[in-house]
Amino acid sequence: MEQYNNPITNFVKRTWDLIQDKNYQTALLIGENMDEDQAFFAGKGLTITKGDIQQISTLSGRYDLVYLNINFHELSKETLMQAFDHLAKLMNANGSLYARGRSTQDAKIDTGTDRHFQYFTKEELEGCLRSLHVVKIDSTSLIQNDLKSHFLEAIATKSFS
Description:
- With 161 residues, this protein is of the alpha/beta class.
- The chain has one domain: Vaccinia Virus protein VP39 (Rossmann fold, 3-Layer(aba) Sandwich).
- It has five helices and six strands; from the N terminus they run αβαββαβααββ.
- A six-stranded mixed sheet has the order 2-1-3-4-6-5.
- Helix 3 crosses helix 5.
- The longest helix has 14 residues.
- The chain is globular, with a radius of gyration of 15 Å.
């Protein structure tokens, strides 16, 4: 029996719920510590390629799904715009991008931890996705280490139609 009880990995299940009828075959997972996410998608039949958030510009290939979970906040806003521009070029025509990162409402901002990370407003994240059609950006949250963490979850497609 598969168990994905970690709130962080609930994003992978929500992503699957939205793409399972799209007949996707390939996925590019960007980030570290995504073994559960990778196992989940592989268990659903997707061929997985993993990439490093710091080396997006060197990635190649074509993918139905591009997936980033809690890691793009390591990049500056300008670098993130360039990264999403490159990822858009790697997406198949009917491809989708699912990305989750910390929002400016995140409790860690007030505690002095993680200050090297970038936190985003919905408008800033939408601007970073300039080369894609933004379907929606939702705010989500969870309690983590006695702090309420806030996230933005974006869905974007290559097609503007």
